[in-house]
């Protein structure tokens, strides 16, 4: 395995990406080939794969076994859970989420792609664009993933014909454009043979674009949270009350988006109280500024009431607070989500009680049609919901901030995650539906 120095790593950027595609399109094989050919696996891992492949009667190592880690996945030859892999090249660091292809595991694809800056959608060159291809493209659009790669796999099984690749790329790009996907890059590959994965293919001289890895290394990470609306969800209030720090009161948390500066006027939500940042501590040292994903402690000039769950934001760029949240959601639990259900909503570090007031529509991903007022959402359903919360929440639109525009719904009885939500409009927003019901006796 090649060695990358700490200096090289510090100079590289991080790309989070997810793979998706129909069953047997070769997602796990592509990931295995990528790790193998880029020398990102250890020798003992490769030896284990070779042994497992030999035990199954295979002459060559099955590279899909590098990511299909569950016993059921190995036995069935499918991906069930999201498999995360971390690797690096001299140009970039990567966090990869290999997601399932089965329709019944759509929720896992939502989980894996929710933080991705790039989604790879695989297509079997023999089958072209199928229903599940459209489903995954729609989910990538809903999650507002900035970059989509169409990997037309198994080109070796169609004699590496350019016309096959061109027809698939044209059909998929047209469909993705209707969804509002901002960028599609199509690459013809053979994951099994290694064509255009890491090394250029000698069998497709008609293709002049980058290999799969080259594109991953060079694609701009355009979703730069450091330039988004600054948001700091408070996780903990630090008060040492020691002789050395008798009056220290700091508000600790991980910056969800944006940049904070010493001297900046800030507002604490949902209370609306204002103050000024007097100091920022990072790793025990004072700094003048801090930005997204850094874990910091912020000190304010005023001694105001702040606790876990509050949100610190710039006064000039504060989001609205509301008790009525409308969002696009993906239901991930086995039990349905129905109108009238009492739930908990977790937004940032704040968790409050809520009620599902309405489900205006359910999205049919096959043709992007809307089924009005379905009454409930079942596992893997995507739809629109209206939620009434017991306390005001400071929410951004998901289109503006993927971090502070998202939430989850939780079953208050057992803590099960029910639904993943994206605040605001989606690419398939229904017409406003008048809520003719009254308050139904709810007290908030």
How much helix, percentage-wise, in residues? 10-25%
Which term fits the overall shape? globular
Number of helices: 8
Major sheet details: 8 strands, antiparallel
Structural class: alpha+beta
Strand content: 25-35%
Mean pLDDT, as a whole number?
Answer: 84
| Low-confidence parts | 6-11, 70-79, 428-444
Oligomer: single chain
Give the beta-strand count.
25
Specify Rg, calculated over alpha carbons. Answer: 24 Å
How widely separated are the two ends? Answer: 59 Å
Features:
444 residues, eight-stranded antiparallel β-sheet, 8 helices
Overview in brief:
By secondary structure, this protein is of the alpha+beta class. 18% of the residues lie in helices and 34% in strands. The strands form 5 sheets. Strands 7, 8, 9, 11, 12, 13, 15 and 16 form an 8-stranded antiparallel β-sheet that branches. The protein has a 6-stranded mixed β-sheet with strand order 2-3-1-4-5-6, with helices on both faces.
């Amino acid at each position: 395995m090649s060695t990358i120095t700490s200096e090289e790593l510090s100079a590289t950027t991080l790309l989070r990406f997810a793979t998706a595609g129909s069953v047997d399109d070769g997602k796990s094989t592509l990931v295995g080939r990528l790790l193998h050919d880029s020398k990102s696996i250890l020798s003992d891992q490769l030896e284990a794969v070779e042994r497992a492949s030999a035990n199954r009667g295979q002459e060559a190592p099955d590279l899909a076994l590098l990511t299909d880690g569950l016993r059921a996945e190995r036995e069935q030859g499918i991906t069930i859970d999201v498999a995360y892999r971390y690797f690096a090249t001299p140009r970039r660091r990567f966090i990869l989420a290999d997601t399932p292809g089965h329709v019944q595991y759509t929720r896992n694809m939502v989980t894996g792609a929710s933080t991705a800056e790039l989604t790879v959608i695989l297509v079997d060159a023999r089958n072209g664009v199928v229903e599940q291809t459209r489903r995954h493209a729609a989910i990538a659009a809903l999650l507002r993933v900035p970059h989509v790669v169409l990997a037309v796999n198994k080109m070796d099984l169609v004699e590496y014909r350019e016309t096959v690749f061109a027809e698939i790329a044209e059909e998929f790009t047209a469909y993705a454009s209707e969804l509002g996907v901002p960028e599609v890059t199509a690459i013809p590959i053979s994951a099994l043979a290694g064509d255009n994965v890491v090394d250029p293919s000698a069998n497709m001289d008609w293709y002049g674009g980058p290999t799969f890895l080259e594109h991953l290394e060079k694609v701009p990470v355009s979703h730069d949270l450091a330039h988004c609306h600054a948001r700091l969800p408070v996780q903990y209030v630090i008060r040492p009350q020691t002789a050395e720090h008798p009056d220290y009161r700091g508000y600790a948390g991980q910056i969800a988006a944006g940049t904070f500066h010493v001297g900046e006027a800030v507002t604490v939500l949902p209370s609306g109280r204002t103050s000024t940042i007097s100091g920022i501590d990072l790793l025990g040292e004072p700094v003048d500024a801090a930005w997204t994903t850094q874990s910091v402690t912020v000190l304010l000039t005023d001694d105001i009431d702040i606790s876990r769950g509050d949100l610190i934001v710039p006064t000039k760029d504060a989001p609205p607070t509301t008790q009525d949240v409308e969002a696009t959601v993906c239901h991930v639990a086995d039990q349905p989500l129905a109108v009238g259900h009492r739930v908990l909503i977790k937004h940032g570090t704040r968790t409050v009680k809520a009620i599902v007031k309405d489900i205006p529509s359910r999205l049919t991903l096959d043709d992007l049609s809307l089924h009005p007022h379905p009454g409930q959402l079942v596992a893997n359903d995507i739809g629109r919901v209206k939620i009434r919360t017991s306390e005001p929440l400071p929410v951004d639109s998901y289109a503006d901030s993927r971090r502070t525009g998202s939430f989850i719904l939780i079953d208050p009885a057992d803590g099960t995650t029910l639904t993943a939500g994206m605040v605001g409009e989606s690419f398939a927003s229904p017409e406003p539906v008048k809520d003719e019901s009254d308050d139904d006796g709810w007290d908030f």
